[in-house]
Amino acid sequence: MTKNLDRFGQAGNGEEYDRDFAGNFDAGLRRYMISVYSLMAGGLTVSGLTAYFAVATGFYQQIISTPLIWLVMFAPLIVVLFLGFLIDRISYAGAQLAFWIYAILMGLSLSSIFLAYTGSSIVRTFFVAAATFGATSLYGYMTERDLSRFGSFLFMALFGVVIASVVGLFVASPALELIISIAGSLLFVALTAYDTQRIKEIYFQAQRGDEIGKRALIGALTLYLDFINLFIMLLRLTGDRRNS
Question: Are the C-beta atoms of residues 63 and 72 closer than 8 Å to each other?
Fold first, then answer.
């Protein structure tokens, strides 16, 4: 009892208590961020394996000229919207299931890169994207600078890249594709830092275990999208296309 009274009654021991509390809180934040990165890495692994085996088995080649390809293309968007709007209403198990379904569907939609680009350039670009993503995400986690003020600009830039990409589907312009690839690469590098800091701050707002788990899932999905889009932009910019 004396020790407990001293812990709160004496300035020195009070500071020690504050340090203990901060240490426990930091440990919780580290576990949360490790969970985010682990889920993201797991999602990328599932997507990569799905894309590879869809092409290796000929499944993607069989559906590419059928109406099913439209389902493959738009299903990931439907799942993202589902998670975004209903994350607070569904269970953690349901959110996890939706995340892994999304990773599989996204893998199917990414299968085309194995038909368009050489295997060596895909591997090379993946490691470049991973190194870039890792360094930028670390900056977003460590920096004391408030990145939230760039949110509106990044959102407008993202909207612009999406619109330009849609236009590029109908206008075959190498110059436009080059501009989109460069701008998109820079944008998703910036978004990686911004989203990492935002995911870190979300931890402070979460209260319960399930809530923290679902926030980690959304954070993993966000960084997954940042990485995938960065990888695709770099692949379009530097990848070696297969001979037709």
Answer: yes
Q: Which residue has the tokens 């295997």?
A: 119
Q: Is the dihedral of CA 153, 156, 162, 164 positive or negative?
A: negative
The pTM score is 0.83
68-86 and 92-109 are packed helices; what angle lies between their axes, rounded to 10 degrees? 150
d(CA 43, CA 228): 11
Secondary structure of residue 207 in the 3-state scheme:
coil
Q: How far apart are CA 66 and CA 59, in angstroms?
A: 12
Distances (CA, A) of 177 to 119, 163, 180: 21, 12, 5
Spatial separation of the C-alpha atoms in residues 184 and 188, rounded to whole Å: 6
The answer for residues whose C-beta is within 8 angstroms of residue 82's C-beta and 6 or more apart is 98
Residue in the block written with tokens 């939230």: 148
Per residue in 181-202, pLDDT tens? 899 999 999 999 999 999 988 8
Instruction: Round to whole Å and give the CA distance between 96 and 35.
Output: 12
Closest by CA to 192, choosing from 223, 218, 166, 171, is 223
d(CA 102, CA 106): 6
- The helix, strand and coil proportions of the chain, stated in percent and rounded to the nearest 5, come to 85, 0, 15
Supply φ then ψ for residue 241, to 5 degrees: -75, 150
- Of 64-73, 88-97, 134-143, which one has max mean pLDDT? 134-143
